[in-house]
């Protein structure tokens, strides 16, 4: 796919394909943020998806696009947690045996959730990139379908279905703030919105610690960075030095990329907790950027991507 029209068609196809498996999540007004900043702020709540994160959309589209015969061979992926949970959930719904490869960096809450999902869980390596190598080896040896976490057209199109809901639910949207890691979500959001409303600004937001896509765009080519501990653990991981799709899409269609500090992420989690919304650090970065850049104008939509954090961990952060 080389143009917005093609991507738009892929997103529309994905929306029809995954409809029986995903929720149409609400767009809720944020009273605190709107009062604090002086302009309307809305929250797109993907943390309400069945397995707790937006990743269900891309995983569902990637698996449903395969033939039943292919799916019966089994599927495998590598993940920082939420994509693995999504593949496990959809795999269970479709009767597809799944293997999830994660690194030792994945938080305990997500490891426990994966264990409870009844998948074959492989914990090996100290980064998502190392888990990817393990997953690739198993996929080749066993003939399994590889469900990429971000750099795949079906995954990108699946994540882009969020945009269709945003524009339907909030036609006045002027700025969409999107957590940015490998770029599957940001790419899907950007191509779907720009195909319909090129006037809407799409801004990617990452954490300061290990912002691989941000640094890659800054340098003009994909780079590697070490994974370091961060509240936004779901945004960890590289984009792949041989990135095929998301790097170029992010570079072309995102209006800006901003990074936020750990303290700003914690502050955003606390603020959202005050509105009764429990989210993980990666989901809070889109709100954290508003604390750094209160000068953004227009009707703002901040995308909350996931809730897969233990309550004690959330309370520890929000209580600081």
Element order: H for helix, E for strand: HEHEHHEHEHEHEHEHEHHEHHEH
Q: What gross morphology would you assign?
A: globular
Overall average residue pLDDT: 94
The CATH architecture name of the largest domain reads 3-Layer(aba) Sandwich
Number of strands: 10
Q: Could you say what the CATH topology of the largest domain is called? A: Rossmann fold
Computed structural class: alpha/beta
Task: Describe the fold and architecture.
The chain is 47% helix and 14% strand. The chain is of the alpha/beta class. The strands form two sheets. A six-stranded mixed β-sheet has the order 1-2-10-7-8-9, sandwiched between helices. β4, α6 and β5 (120-123) form a beta-alpha-beta unit. The chain is globular and about 55 Å long. The N and C termini lie far apart (46 Å). The model has no long low-confidence stretch (mean pLDDT 94).
Short description:
With 320 residues, the protein is of the alpha/beta class.
Keywords:
alpha/beta; Rossmann fold; 2 domains; 6-stranded mixed β-sheet; globular
SSE order and pairing:
Elements lengths: L3 H15 L8 E3 L1 H7 L3 E5 L10 H9 L3 H4 L3 E5 L2 H13 L3 E5 L5 H9 L3 E4 L4 H15 L2 E2 L6 H17 L5 E5 L4 H13 L4 E7 L4 H8 L26 H8 L2 E5 L1 H13 L6 H12 L7 E5 L6 H8 L2
Parallel strand pairs: 2-10, 3-4, 3-6, 4-5, 7-8, 7-10, 8-9
Antiparallel strand pairs: 1-2
Helix pairs in contact: 1-3, 1-8, 1-9, 3-5, 3-8, 8-9, 9-11, 12-13
